Amino acid sequence: MASGDLGRDAAAGPLDLDDVERAAAAALPPEVWDFVAGGSGRELSLAANRAAFDAVFVRPRVLNDVSACDPGTTLLGRPVRFPVAVGPVAYHRLVHAEGEAATARAAKAAGVPFTVATLSSVPVEEVTAVGGAVWFQLYWLRDTGRTLDLVRRAEDAGCEALVLTVDVPWMGRRLRDVRNGFALPADVRAVHLGAGTSAAHRGDDGASAVAAHTAETFSRSLTWSSVRRLREHTRLPIVLKGVLDPEDARRAVEYGVDALVVSNHGGRQLDGALTAVDALPDVVAAVDGGCEVLLDGGVRGGTDVLKALALGASGVLVGRAPLWGLAAGGEDGVRQVLEILAAELTDALGLAGCAGVAEARRLATLRRGGPSP
């Protein structure tokens, strides 16, 4: 698939992620762009994710030595250049022929983890061969044996963590895809789920083929006993992605989970679900240091990462933005996205009076209309 002009000025490159988003939208066919950009229902949660970040303001500190700002930290015990991981997004080959392999190379170059999805269009073995830190995102399948086979495959490939997505018993009603009758092209498939034509390729007016495929494949019976079984089955760190309720967060700690991702699935599941930004402080308080807490949904710049840190997160996942970079400029486009985030975060740290991530977590925040919880 042809790449677009990455940014407003090809010589200068994109100045921020909005430039990258525009370039990606111009590069992709409308139905593919809708698949990438869209949310569920009326897209209330999709819009709220961004609005929630915009409503948070940081109280900067002054008279601190910021001559050597360092955004480096650790995620899941591994050093990272800055507190960002590339989150799981399905079917990267929809937007670029090299797919997840190109995104993983860019993440390695940026010094951050890459999360390969169950619905990846490139095998996990090819992704880990890149050599960076790779996490494996896991959907619980109707066939538990196949699910545990995927776990073993991820372990054998060298993945460093399992990210169990817990908010998708089935795919939310994504009306853009329904209206487009969206289906995968023949050369893009979920390579971890077997060969052959699947429901994801059978287009039909007024229906999403991708949603039909997940309805056939994903378990609707994922429970805490499944989490216990996964904990007994693997020694890898387990991350639960899709937690918004503090009681669920407390229970996750009891079940030996290593980290949580506070997330409403980028506004693509329950429309009207609480935003991650709004849920984060209560989740952080509930786990009380018992596990790491990450956030995703709506992150569009380094100041958003700073705000997430100030609200208690260990770091953030970014999903759509790297995919925009991949669509607009391939591997180099993803690198630009991650370098923009790193530069903006370093700038935000210094201007907030923070020499590093630890200081950022002590910043006070205010929400428009009142203090943050």
From TrEMBL:
Gene3D superfamilies: Aldolase class I. Its cofactor is FMN. Signal peptide: none annotated. Residues 9-370 form the FMN hydroxy acid dehydrogenase domain. InterPro entries: Aldolase_TIM, Alpha-hydoxy_acid_DH_FMN, FMN-dep_DH, FMN_HAD, FMN_hydac_DH_AS. Transmembrane segments: none annotated. Keywords: Flavoprotein, FMN, Oxidoreductase. Belongs to the FMN-dependent alpha-hydroxy acid dehydrogenase family. This is Alpha-hydroxy acid oxidase.
